[in-house]
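REQUEST ID: PR-0412
SUBMITTED BY: lab tech R.K.
PRIORITY: routine
TASK: structure prediction, single protein chain
INPUT:
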Amino acid sequence: MKALIIKSTLVLMLGSFFAFSAQAQMTAPFAGGVKLQQGGAVSPAMGLSLKASNTTPYTSDVTLNFVQPTTNGFMKIAAFGANAGNVVVSAIDLTTDIGASILPIANGGTGSATAIGALTNLLPSQGGNSGKFLTTNGTTSSWGSPVTSVGLALPAELTVSNSPVTTTGTLTAAWASQTANKIFASPDGAPGAPSFRTMTANDVPSLDASKITTGTFSASMIPNLDASKITTGTLAVARGGTGSTSFTGNAVIVSNAAGTALTSQSLTNGQIIIGSTGAAPVAATITAGSGISITNGAGSITISSNANGMNKARVNLNAAAVSYTANAAPAGFTFSATSVVNITILEAGGYPITATVTNINTVLNTFDFVISGYPTAGSTALVSFQN
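STATUS: complete
OUTPUT:
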């Protein structure tokens, strides 16, 4: 026996048990309980209506004690009006109260007495769906076909092995062999998919020369390298640089004493770089020698002989004289302020005698000289001339 408690505002006082026929009516007040029974029916149907009083409201509980209905029967409570209270069903035992009945899916059940059967009934139809999996579109569920083959496609720079996998396995990717000296980078100067290609100047960021600490520059190091990429620092001589940041315009380049940097030096007309043992080379002009004339110009040095006509003459010496004046220059030679006269004494007796030029007359084109001793008869002086 189970209890169904109906809480409501009533004026009915229930007393003894009464038996009713269909549509029977009982009026208040009563004390005790009311037994509602319709015996022998396969699907019993009975109702209880409690009418409220305007003057004496009843606020206690009404308890309906009921026994298990007949097979496939059920109890229905409905048509509660305004101010109706709560309906509480307590301690219903499915085995005792409902019995062997199986609640169908249409009535909120599973239609099965076992978990596997219930699951089978609740899932979409399984006929012809062997090996499929349960899926949903967000509203209803259905059977979906599984993946039977998985492959892997990659760019040409990579190779794939074990593709496709149809049962179990591992997809493996590896770098494909490339030609030498290529880099993996995006296109030069434009966006796009990366690939292996030759390095260009745009691939090299701006560099500080001090970061280059080993090796020396060569054409094979970085192809198409733009020197403008080196924007700071000074490239050392040891790294193929100059060790200097600027040079004098139109100057020649020489190394400093330490050999760690190059310096520039300007030259004037006719100057050339001349070495100096143990010291830095210097800028100097060529010095003219005997019979040589040097003419310096812008970017030129002219070297020529300064002899004009016959540049040698022989003078006979007087055995009794040591001074010789107004000796004429050789034919075709004209004295100038820079003329040089060299005299060699050919002394017949074999005695050493020297000669010294004492005057050159550029107006008369003559020269004077003296000798250091008296020559023997037949001695001569060999005289050479140069400007």
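NOTES: DSSP finds two helices and 23 strands in the chain.
REVIEWED BY: pending
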